[in-house]
Amino acid sequence: MALTFPASPPSLFLFFFFLLLFFSLSQAQVQTFTYVNEGEFGPYITENDADYRVLPPFSSPFQMCFYNTTPGEFYLALRMATRRSESTFRWVWRANPFSPVRDNATFSLRPDGDLVLANPDGKIVWSTNTANKGVVGLKIVPGGNIVLYDNKGKFVWQSFDHPTDTLLVGQSLRVSGPTKLLSRNNGAYSLVLQSDGLYMYINNATTEPLLYGRLLDQATTSVEFVSEPDTDHGAYELKLDLGPSQGSAILAEPKYNATLSFLRIEEDGNLVVYTYYDPVDYQAWEKTYAYFSDEIGPGGPGGCMLPSKCGGFGLCENEMCVACPTKEGLLGWNESCSTPTLAKCTAAAAADYYKVVGVENFLTSYGKGKKSVKVEECKKKCSSDCKCLGFFYWELESTCWLAPLIGTLAKVSNSTHVAYVKFAK
Q1: Residues of the signal sequence (predicted)?
Q2: Do 274 and 286 contact (CB within 8 A), yes or no?
Q3: Phi and psi torsions of 389, nearest 5°
Q4: DSSP codes of every residue in 301-343
């Protein structure tokens, strides 16, 4: 059936007038803004000694900022902590974690409802892709979730669905996505939820990701970082909730309100929880959990099993880097300690090995060793593999692990657990 309109000119005029007014009012409902990355830097202490510029969106103790650790390379981020407690400002979310913007970049909520971060030349670096989806405004809700909402208050977009290296209380990883956290140093380390557990990986550009930690080893579709009061013990439980009827994994139990906590994959690969207790006037932050630690948190593998504990290479004992293994023997450790530089990999390149006794590392815990292999056969396999820097060998079991990365060697009492480090002849 064909549509008909009133024929008289006054009626047509009124019809189109009210139609235009309706669309005009709909557009006017969007609380637009544009903030420019310019002006003086803030005066307070921040993570990584970053310079920062404060932006208006705020919900204590969270505030949006531009920050940088390298001149001219800025991130749009969410800051946690207040200046009242004189505590370090920590960054718990970044819009553009691997694509920094420049001075005079703009952060804007546009009339169409899209939230956009753009460089001064107008090139869009990041956006929420929410144009024409009914967005009317932005706010930070309690707990640190940045949300875009419609005229009924429904969330159209939320930062909790886009974690970077951090999970705030109430934030989740899901098998259906988001599945992972990536560390700040270009994603060198990751915490990944898979269908059979929660795993930690080294993302080495020369090999497939290397498993170095397992936080959970049971099937689940999601994990949520939770803080709950434990009235029986007068504490708060910081835990990973696995969903209905699946239980939870308790990470820490601070003796105070730990609602303002977050879980992070650090730049060194450790998985930690920081808790912020605002009522105190000084040092409001506490590290309440660390996966690789001899002291903080339950049941972890120990501090020396952190692959980066001694930087590129080193021998660790009692959470201290005690020596630099070389072909001349054990020397004093410093940050320049490294595995030997190898000759250009060719068929003719000759390699030899020096032995380090009584050591293990993450590969022997999580790598797939080959059993019933003689040590000379293991050497031959490593020598013919350009990516192999050495190997681990358990002499009683005749088990061999080729090592594309060695990192920290953890001292153990079993002298039959040894490492062979490759060097050029």
Answers
A1: 1-28
A2: yes
A3: -100, -5
A4: --GGGSTTTTTTEEEEETTEEEEEEETTEEE---TT--PPPPP
Predicted confidence (pLDDT) per residue in 399-424, tens digit: 999 999 999 999 999 999 999 999 99
Contact 419, 356 (CB under 8 A): yes
pLDDT at 160 over 90: yes
Which helix (H) or strand (E) segment holds residue 166: the answer is strand 166-168
Residue 49, domain CATH:
2.90.10.10
Q: Model-level pTM?
A: 0.90
Q: For residue 244, what are the domain limits?
A: 166-300
3-state secondary structure of 48: helix
**Amino acid letter for position 344:** K
Same domain, 273 and 295: yes
Dist. CA 90–CA 50, nearest whole Å: 10
Q: Are residues 58 and 129 in the same domain?
A: yes
Helix or strand or coil: residue 65? Answer: strand
Q: Region 44-72: what's the mean pLDDT?
A: 96
Task: Give the residue among 407, 264, 400 at the shortest CA–CA distance from 418.
Answer: 400
| Statement to judge: residues 149 and 232 lie in one domain | no
Are residues 310 and 356 both part of a single domain?
A: yes
Beta bridge partners of 119: none
In 242-295, where do the E strands start and end?
Answer: 248-252, 261-265, 271-276, 285-290
Cα dihedral sign, 184-186-191-193? positive
For residue 71, the SS3 value is: coil
For the chain, how many structural domains are there in total?
A: 3
d(C-alpha 283, C-alpha 61), whole Å: 15
**Pick from 199, 192, 184, 204: which is nearest to 267 by CA?**
184
Give the span between the Cα atoms of 309 and 410, in whole angstroms.
Answer: 10
Interatomic CA distance for residues 390 and 378, integer angstroms:
9
Task: From 300, 328, 344, give the residue that closes a domain.
Answer: 300
Amino acid identity at 83 = R
pLDDT above 70 coverage of the chain, percent: 91
Alpha carbon distance, N-terminus to C-terminus of the chain: 89
Smallest CA-to-CA distance from 316 within 299, 329, 333, 328 is with 333
